[in-house]
């Protein structure tokens, strides 16, 4: 899940609260943060620091890079990607969103703050996550304690945001709203005991998260796993790879094919979340200990599949992207998870209507930021990629576009 929202809406605090209440951080560390935060007169930052590890982030009270943390409920394991809300850090946010199943949009409900957030990053973020394929969004209407849990305020925010999210392309059934307080912890992992908040009888944030089962990850689809890391495990396991299973399933003893090398290997053993297991399914983070393959054929960004349905290895693709900078035929780097290759936008096919996806203008010479466009990208080398993968295009150190292979 990715956590997004305007700067200072309380994203890090909210997620810190979630992690703290789920026991993902020990109390001693929290106490330490609390003392440090009070020292600089920013007591409420303590929870945010659970995610903001850099000293600059702590001093400024803003999240700069993406923080990832894991926590588990009785039903599901989650990885939080806490994205920076600040305008300058949008590229970091995209990289985070491209790995997410669903988004938590944090809104600051306090007077004046909601309105300025709506003008600010709130809209951009929601469009971004939608354009890179996130379908479900949970809106945490935060800091409700600052408006005395005013139901009318909540309803007003709910109406404005949901109409906007629907124009951004979210379906009504995939949008939910929760009034909460990150600092106090109300309606996050426990129901609010506040008398003024008794009108809300819906789910808490954690309950809502649990109902948003990660997309029934493509279990019945052919095996796909992108290699995150390649390492030598020791004498018993001369070569191991780790990554997330994107689709399909695998078990000990299976033969796999790695692309683009086209080499086969045998799965000697499997670990899921660092525990030995006989098998693994889509959506899990796994380590595979391999036999019968030379490490020379394994690189991060490569894809594991089966000989019966290999992933195509391509040098050119068409993608539907959201432009963040001006796009024209130009050199770019293609990023997909760990994979990045030099490439160029060779053809601007059309600019598209954001809502319907239908072409507005054929063969534009240039596409301005905020526009959705269909482009053809040619890569310098053959790479394992297939639709509907999400890709990010960067140039000169900034993200210029992100979207889906078609």
Which characteristics define this entry?
single chain, 406 residues, alpha+beta, Rossmann fold, Elongation Factor Tu (Ef-tu), domain 3, 3 domains, six-stranded mixed β-sheet, six-stranded antiparallel beta barrel, 22 strands, globular
CATH superfamily label of the largest domain: P-loop containing nucleotide triphosphate hydrolases
Low-confidence stretches: 53-67, 83-96
| Apparent shape | globular
Radius of gyration from CA coordinates: 22 Å
- The arrangement of helices and strands along the chain is EHHHHEEHEHEHEHEEEEEEEEEEEEEEEE
**Number of self-contained structural domains:** 3
Can you count the beta strands?
A: 22
Spatial order of the strands in the main sheet? 2-3-1-4-5-6
Total of helices: 8
Mean pLDDT score, rounded? 80
CATH class (first level) name of the largest domain? Alpha Beta
- In CATH, the architecture of the largest domain is 3-Layer(aba) Sandwich
Structural class: alpha+beta
Task: Please give a structural write-up.
The radius of gyration is 22 Å and the shape is globular. It has 3 domains: 2-211, 3-Layer(aba) Sandwich (Rossmann fold), CATH 3.40.50.300; 224-305, Elongation Factor Tu (Ef-tu), domain 3 (Beta Barrel), CATH 2.40.30.10; 313-405, Translation factors (Elongation Factor Tu (Ef-tu), domain 3). Helices cover 21% and strands 37% of the residues. It has 406 residues and is α+β, with helices and mostly antiparallel strands. The protein has a 6-stranded mixed β-sheet with strand order 2-3-1-4-5-6, with helices on both faces. The chain has a 6-stranded antiparallel barrel with strand order 7-8-14-11-10-15. Strands 16-20-18-17-21-22 form a 6-stranded antiparallel beta barrel. The chain has helices at 11-21, 27-39, 45-49, 55-60, 90-97, 113-131, 151-167, 205-211; strands at 2-5, 67-72, 77-82, 102-108, 136-142, 175-179, 224-231, 239-247, 249-251, 255-259, 263-272, 275-277, 279-281, 285-291, 303-305, 313-323, 330-336, 339-352, 359-362, 372-384, 390-395, 398-405. Helix 6 packs parallel to helix 7 (151-167).
